[in-house]
Amino acid sequence: MNVPLPKYAERGPIHDVVWVPLKFYHDQRGWLVELFRNDLIDPKYHPVMAYVSQTKPGVARGPHEHVDQSDYFCFTGPSTFRVYLWDARKDSPTYGKKEVRDVGEDAAYALIVPPGVVHAYKNVGGKDGLVFNGANRLYAGWLKQEPVDEIRHEHDANSPYQLD
């Protein structure tokens, strides 16, 4: 089933990448932001696990890619992240294309990264930042008994996937 994108979602320059602006609802108690709604996202991207990571200023995670897994990242702050995407799928109409976008505190977004899209992010803000991910596959499979679905590029000095 292919669910149409919500009217406010944006397709990235890279085929199948989806950017969903996140809206904060503020009141006297603080704020609330919906990170995921299964009625607005294609079921093939529905999370089966979730985690939150903290990244220090100036630190990057990735680049890496997945063979089967899709990531559903949410960048809400409290810092700014520079997200890097490279289309490594030979059958994609945007094969070889690179996309870079700053998101987080001043531009909160959810991001769907399909398999075969190399991705990385770097905290370019001045404070610790938090990132939520709702992946559509279990890390290391059921009960962590399978190989991890990652192709890592960050330690390869000759990799074409370099952060600026």
UniProtKB/TrEMBL annotation:
According to its UniProt entry, one GO biological process term is: polysaccharide biosynthetic process
Site location (Participates in a stacking interaction with the thymidine ring of dTDP-4-oxo-6-deoxyglucose): Y139
Reaction catalysis annotation: dTDP-4-dehydro-6-deoxy-alpha-D-glucose = dTDP-4-dehydro-beta-L-rhamnose
A single GO cellular-component term from the record reads:
cytosol
Which is one GO molecular function term here? dTDP-4-dehydrorhamnose 3,5-epimerase activity
Q: What class of enzyme is it?
A: isomerase
Q: What is its EC number?
A: 5.1.3.13
Q: Which Pfam families match?
A: dTDP_sugar_isom
What does the function comment of this entry state?
Catalyzes the epimerization of the C3' and C5'positions of dTDP-6-deoxy-D-xylo-4-hexulose, forming dTDP-6-deoxy-L-lyxo-4-hexulose.
Can you say what this protein is called?
dTDP-4-dehydrorhamnose 3,5-epimerase
Q: What organism is this sequence from?
A: Urbifossiella limnaea
Lineage, broadest ranks: Bacteria, Pseudomonadati, Planctomycetota, Planctomycetia, Gemmatales
